[in-house]
Design goal:
It catalyses: an R-cob(III)alamin(out) + ATP + H2O = an R-cob(III)alamin(in) + ADP + phosphate + H(+). By secondary structure, this protein is α/β, with parallel strands linked by helices. It has a single domain, classed as P-loop containing nucleotide triphosphate hydrolases (Rossmann fold, 3-Layer(aba) Sandwich), CATH 3.40.50. Helices cover 34% and strands 30% of the residues.
Length: 255
């Protein structure tokens, strides 16, 4: 499955947030959206998810306008995890993850639904939390619950808006690594907004670098993330180091 973003712009009132964004995201690939706060990452994710209507341009899934796809069919195609979660207090983790199966359920929960929920919770290491209320969990635990809900949805494409923002260092690495492995194993696709450049460099196939709502560059992480681009977009100096674990970015305030 391919998601095509063609000359998309977005506004909040009279303020232009996105300007003429074009790219394609493909099955089997993880695409990272990068850029400083206010560069338009979350707005772009919401626009692709059809939460926001584009002010200009179009978004298609395999050639079909995303706004014209039936809501249930679109839910089977796209799993969206927002940056900020809305949840009902005193709802268990199990019930929250089960919500991801709504596009497939009729009047009752099937064995397939329960199996998908069990697998999703096991993948995110939250099986032991299944009977806990979501409002009793830490921010990081809740984040893993909502990622599990998206996994249970079994979509063709994942849209994740800074899914590691509340996670500790270990769970950041595990989550992005796990999602990359799922994308490759299932030939699904993923667009993920990130702040951590090293996660993008290590675990994604392509990056789209945003600056002030415009596309600064798009391509392979090693090609896009350079000392010049980090200086232009983030206003920092940077150097790259390599060791047995891979290539990493060291950034620091400009002299």
């Amino acid at each position: 499955m391919n998601i095509s973003v063609d000359s998309v712009s977005q506004k909040y009132g009279s303020h232009a947030v996105l300007k003429n964004i074009s790219f394609e995201a493909k099955s089997g690939e993880v695409l990272a959206l990068l850029g400083p706060n206010g560069s338009g990452k979350s707005t772009l994710i919401k626009t692709i998810a059809d939460i926001l209507t584009p002010a200009g341009g179009s978004i298609t899934i395999d050639g079909a306008d995303v706004q014209k796809i039936d809501r249930i069919d679109r839910a089977k195609m796209i799993g969206y995890v927002p940056q900020y979660f809305h949840y009902t207090p005193f709802t268990t983790v199990l019930d929250t993850v089960l919500i991801g199966r709504r596009p497939y359920m009729s009047w009752s929960v099937s064995d397939d639904d329960l199996a998908a929920v069990d697998q999703a919770m096991a993948t995110m290491n939250i099986t032991d939390l299944s009977d806990r209320f979501v409002n009793e969990l830490s921010g990081g635990q809740r984040q893993r619950v909502f990622i599990a809900r998206a996994l249970a949805q079994d979509p063709n494409f994942f849209l994740f808006d800074e899914p590691t923002s509340s996670l500790d260092l270990r769970h950041q690495l595990e989550t992005v690594s796990t999602m990359r492995d799922i994308v490759r194993k299932d030939n699904s696709g993923m667009i993920i907004a990130l702040h951590d450049l090293n996660l993008a460099l290590r675990y994604t196939d392509k990056v789209l670098l945003l600056k002030d709502g415009e596309m600064y560059d798009h391509g392979a992480p090693a090609d896009v993330l350079t000392p010049k681009s980090l200086r232009d977009v983030y206003g920092v100096d940077a150097e790259f180091v390599e060791n047995a674990q891979g290539r990493f970015i060291l950034s620091y305030a400009p002299s």
